């Protein structure tokens, strides 16, 4: 495989370290310490190979340039704990919602908006919860919050939020669309100007008309299971998720079923592919593959689904502290993060607790390198693989 000039960002959000490494040789070219990035809000690709993320301890939105002379290009104060992060298609206007953090119940109603061109930022109060967010472009960009219980898409004008007075005033959306109460998973397609929300009913669609949203059809899961995560495939013009089925009791996680769900936005065709039992959640998209990690007591693996719908399964070394039978897959255990770039064929998979990142060639299924960092990568850490002009910024939602 001919490698593109790619970089790998690796975050240990518990230890507070961020590494930058060359791909595929694994040479670490930069490191930040004392930076505890929000794993839930994730990394957001910006134009020109730049990346946005949120430091949950310092309460800052960071713009990183892994290809530049200085890694931190900009730092802007924002409300935390960061739950979701998104930008408009230009990459200029960003929104950060707040969530639970280390708390049992939702408690924060703060939303921060940032204009990267001017450095301006404003905080407002919306509604307590864990809202998802998308930022729609156009002459007057819109911030769309996805709320639960009661479910709704709440539409705000970005300019109104940015010019709100100091003191974190409460704001009222100028438009709403009702949703089921169990929405979880958001995507935004700048080409069609559509917003997508995952619920138990399927994927609810809406499109911008003027300064509001108009509800579209609900895309069915075509399965008794449901997706909890949505990702836009910028190369194949598709939506992706993993459908999780079975007894929802977390103690039954080894028996959970998992299906790759792909919906072609051009043809309207939906394809389901069985991935196997266990814990499968987030996915990553290469130039020609979708990559999933599957954690199971009988052995972990990287699962690659290519453009011909062919599966390749690659065993992964076991993790000390991995989820066990009789326990949950969330509390006090190690996990894996996965990353890929739509401009290359590399896949990066972490080995939580071991400070290792496997770099795999999706075309051959072979491990090309194994990066070792000086922190354990607690809970699997978080990773992003990118090239300077790989088109990843066509997906304007943090991952």
UniProtKB/TrEMBL annotation:
The superkingdom of the source organism is Bacteria
Q: Spell out the InterPro entries in the cross-references.
A: Quino_amine_DH_bsu (IPR011044), WD40/YVTN_repeat-like_dom_sf (IPR015943)
Protein's name according to its UniProt entry: Uncharacterized protein
Q: Which organism is it from?
A: Streptomyces lavendofoliae
Q: What is the lineage of its organism?
A: Bacteria, Bacillati, Actinomycetota, Actinomycetes, Kitasatosporales
């Amino acid at each position: 495989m001919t490698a593109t000039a790619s970089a790998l960002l690796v975050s240990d959000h518990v230890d507070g370290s961020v590494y930058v490494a060359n791909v595929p040789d694994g040479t670490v070219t930069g490191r930040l310490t004392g930076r505890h990035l929000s794993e839930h809000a994730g990394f957001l690709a910006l134009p020109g190979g730049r990346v946005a993320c949120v430091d949950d301890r310092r309460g800052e939105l960071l713009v990183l340039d892994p290809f530049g002379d200085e890694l931190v290009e900009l730092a802007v104060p924002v409300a935390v704990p960061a739950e979701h992060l998104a930008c408009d298609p230009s990459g200029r206007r960003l929104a950060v919602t707040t969530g639970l953090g280390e708390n049992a119940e939702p408690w924060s109603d703060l939303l921060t908006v940032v204009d990267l061109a001017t450095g301006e930022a404003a905080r407002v109060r919306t509604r307590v919860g864990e809202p998802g967010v998308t930022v729609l472009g156009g002459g007057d960009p819109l911030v769309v919050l996805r709320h639960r219980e009661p479910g709704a898409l709440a539409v705000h004008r970005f300019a109104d939020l940015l010019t709100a007075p100091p003191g974190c005033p409460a704001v009222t959306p100028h438009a709403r669309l009702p949703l089921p109460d169990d929405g979880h998973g958001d995507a935004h397609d700048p080409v069609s100007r559509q917003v997508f929300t995952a619920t138990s009913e399927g994927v609810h669609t809406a499109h911008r008309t003027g300064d509001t949203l108009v509800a579209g059809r609900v895309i069915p899961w075509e399965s008794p299971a449901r997706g909890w995560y949505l990702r836009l495939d910028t190369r194949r013009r598709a939506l992706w998720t993993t459908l999780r089925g079975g007894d929802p009791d977390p103690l039954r996680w080894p028996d959970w079923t998992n299906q790759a769900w792909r919906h072609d936005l051009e043809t309207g065709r939906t394809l389901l592919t069985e991935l196997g039992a266990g814990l499968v959640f987030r996915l990553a998209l290469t130039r020609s593959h979708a990559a999933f990690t599957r954690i199971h007591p009988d052995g972990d693996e990287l699962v690659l689904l290519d453009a011909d719908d062919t599966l390749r399964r690659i065993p992964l070394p076991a993790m000390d502290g991995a989820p066990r039978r009789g326990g949950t897959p969330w509390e006090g255990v190690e996990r894996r993060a996965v990353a890929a770039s739509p401009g290359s064929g590399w896949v990066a998979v972490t080995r939580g607790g071991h400070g290792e990142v496997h770099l795999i060639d999706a075309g051959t299924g072979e491990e090309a390198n194994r990066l070792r960092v000086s922190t354990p990568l607690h809970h699997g850490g978080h990773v992003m693989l990118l090239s300077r002009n790989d088109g990843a910024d066509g997906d304007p939602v943090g991952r």
